[in-house]
Amino acid sequence: MADIHGSYDELFTAVPTALAALLDDGDVGGAVSVFVDGEPVVDVWGGFADAGRERAWERDTIVNVFSVTKTMTALCALVLIDRGRLDPDAPVARYWPEFAAAGKRNVLVRHLLSHTAGLPDWEGPVEELYDWATATTRLAGQAPRWEPGTAAGYHSLTQGFLVGEVLRRITGRSVGEFFAAEVAGPLGADFHIGLGPEDDRRVAPAVPPPGKDEDYTAGASGRDAAPTRATALRVRDGNSLAWRRAQIPAASGYGNARSVALVQSLLACGGTVGGVRVLSPEGCERARQVQFEGEDRVLGMPARYGLGYGLFGSALGWGGWGGALVWVDPDERLAMAYVTNQMREPAADNRGIELVMAAQDGIKGLRA
Fold first, then answer.
1. Do residues 42 and 334 touch, judged by C-beta distance below 8 A?
2. DSSP string, 171-199
């Protein structure tokens, strides 16, 4: 069995056992963290931080969690809503006047957070993602693909710029700056939207699925996914220094499992973790208010969206390209995060859910 490092409560033995099984099955490296009542009951890691299996995955190894980053950006929006500085029912153009162009005057803030704004595709060059002004100007001039609010289509790269520009117009700070000052800093969370060169040594680059190379591209996992006009994103793009340095608040967040679970424990614990209040209980519940339920036009599968989070029964969370996952169960005051550098094909990747089930076994024992 693969060597697993870290610590865990004996009631949660199934979690490190499941991570070891994934590494034994060929995964390069990964980490899992489970928080209950705002405290870690599992914090484990194993494997390697590089495809050549020469650099061990360490306690402070960080990885790009891709779309799990959306939950961090959503949390920033929820904080501003809590403070009365952002109205989810207001037109986006109230905060960002240029956005009203091309028939978007009636797009509401909640449409951005729930993938119903009609702007799902990034159609510009990948290089434009690295320049905030260029990316947001492009999106401000784009016409919606459907009447906003009437349908959902996953905004895989665009959501972060859309929500992020609204946040910037309100606060004068980028999403990365706001998140660092108002969320990660107070909690002591090692999560970054926009990564500096001082942290490069800690990064575990993404490893393509077996049989694929760094030209492997992101894509929807549903069989009924509609043809897309979106620019293809390759693994080599996500592994580039330009990607790390940029703020792409839908997809370029770097952290470890511990940091993801710590931050998202806020939603599991009524907005307070470790004595630090970031959200009100009402703000946490706001995230679970259903904004859309039905077929996602882009993913080609059923979806339920709250304000910035996917909804799964009473739980909420989201996954990232390559396998990362955050799962929050407020009823159990549980937050679980899984991060990995080993990508798998989306349609055949059940790793995150297997680890959620292992964590739920531990909760049953804890609550018995």
1. no
2. HSS-HHHHHIIIIIHHHT--EEES--GGG
Give Cβ neighbours of residue 357 (< 8 Å, ≥ 6 apart): none
- For residue 341, which amino acid is it? N
Rounded Cα gap, residues 339 and 232, in angstroms:
23
In the three-class reduction of DSSP (H, G, I as helix; E, B as strand; rest coil), residue 143 is classed as coil
Q: Within a 10 A sphere around the Cβ of 213, how many other Cβ atoms?
A: 10
Taking the CA atoms of residue 251, residue 353, residue 212 and residue 260 in that order, the dihedral angle to the nearest 10 degrees is: 30
For the chain, what's the residue count? 368
* Pairwise CA distance, residues 301 & 294, whole Å: 8
**10 Cβ contact partners less than 8 Å away, ≥ 6 residues apart:** none
Phi/psi at 193 (5° precision): -110, 100
Spatial strand order of the sheet with 39-47 comes to 4-8, 39-47, 29-36, 334-340, 325-329, 315-319, 310-312, 301-305, 292-296
Q: Which two tokens stand for residue 316?
A: 């909420």
* Separation of alpha carbons 257 and 44, rounded Å: 9
Neighbours of 301 (CB within 10 A): 14
169-203 pLDDT per residue, tens? 999 999 999 999 999 999 999 999 999 999 999 99
Is pTM beyond 0.85? Reply is: yes
Catalytic residues: 67
Name residues whose C-beta falls within 8 Å of residue 1's C-beta, 6 or more positions apart in sequence. 20, 21, 24
The Cα–Cα gap between 309 and 73 comes to 10
pLDDT digits (tens, 9 = 90+) for 235-254: 999 999 999 999 999 999 99
Q: Which of 367, 358, 340 is nearest to 42 (CA)?
A: 358
CA distance linking residue 265 with residue 72, whole number of Å: 12
* Tally of CA atoms within 13 A in the half-sphere of 183 that contains its CB: 30
